[in-house]
């Protein structure tokens, strides 16, 4: 199953933090890594800002490049930009979040969506993705109202529809690594 990685997820592969293990396991468990062309610029800029020396940046940028070469990259073409505008209006997303979700929406299903931006989770669930993120309970009452979140630990979720105006995400645990 393909896994879409936004910049918040891919960055955690290179930076030591509590969420790094989730990213490593999720990526090891999927053979097809996918992202948008925007992710590379976001990650390069963030790594530049996070690193303490040029040498440290070069090492991390090299690791990013090796992973980038293994990714399927979805271009941000006219079709993707138009879909981002639709998703942004439908889910009340910021532009960058809508771009990531529009790119991911081009993947064949079933697919996973890995993010650490809680604003993207209701839209990812609404689009039918199996998602991975820090543990949250997501409830949206309508497409035009913002979601409410309750943080906890780490989980993944699969969308479960109850009615057309409400999206409830069922929490599940990550499976074992296959890589």
Structure overview:
The structure is a single chain. This protein is of the alpha/beta class. 42% of the residues lie in helices and 28% in strands. It is built from seven helices and seven strands; from the N terminus they run βααβααβααβαβββ. Strands 1, 2, 3, 4, 5, 6 and 7 form a seven-stranded mixed beta sheet that branches. α3 (37-50) runs antiparallel to α4 and α5 crosses α6 (95-104). It is globular.
Features:
single chain; 28% strand; 7-stranded mixed β-sheet; alpha/beta; disordered C terminus; 179 residues; 42% helix
What is the compact description of this entry?
With 179 residues, this protein is α/β, with parallel strands linked by helices. The chain is built from seven helices and seven strands, in the order βααβααβααβαβββ.
Structural class: alpha/beta
Terminal CA distance reads 14 Å
The low-confidence runs, each spanning 5 or more residues with pLDDT under 50, are 136-179
How many distinct helices?
7
Average pLDDT figure: 79
What fraction of residues sit in β-strands? 25-35%
Q: Which bin fits the share of residues in helices?
A: 40-55%
Rounded radius of gyration (Å)? 16 Å
Kindly report the oligomeric state of this protein: single chain
- The strand count comes to 7
SSE blueprint and pairings:
Elements: E1 2-5, H1 7-12, H2 20-28, E2 32-36, H3 37-50, H4 54-69, E3 71-74, H5 78-91, H6 95-104, E4 112-114, H7 121-126, E5 130-140, E6 148-163, E7 166-172
Parallel strand pairs: 1-2, 1-4, 2-3, 4-5
Antiparallel strand pairs: 5-6, 5-7, 6-7
Helix pairs in contact: 3-4, 5-6
């Amino acid at each position: 199953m393909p896994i879409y990685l936004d910049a918040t997820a891919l960055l955690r592969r290179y930076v030591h933090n509590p969420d790094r293990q989730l990213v490593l396991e999720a990526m090891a468990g999927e053979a097809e890594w996918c992202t948008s062309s925007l992710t590379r610029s976001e990650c390069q800029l963030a790594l530049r800002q996070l690193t303490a020396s040029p040498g440290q940046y070069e090492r991390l940028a090299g690791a990013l490049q090796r992973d980038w070469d293994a990714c399927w990259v979805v271009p941000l073409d006219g079709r993707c930009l138009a879909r981002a505008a639709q998703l942004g209006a439908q889910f009340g997303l910021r532009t960058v979040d809508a771009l990531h979700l529009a790119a991911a929406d081009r993947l064949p299903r079933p697919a996973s969506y890995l993010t650490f931006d809680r604003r993207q989770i209701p839209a990812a669930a609404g689009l039918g993705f199996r998602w991975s993120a820090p543990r949250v309970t997501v409830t949206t009452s309508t497409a035009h109202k913002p979601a409410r979140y309750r943080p906890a630990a780490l989980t993944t979720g699969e969308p479960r529809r109850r009615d057309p105006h409400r999206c409830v995400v069922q929490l599940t645990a990550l499976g074992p690594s296959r890589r």
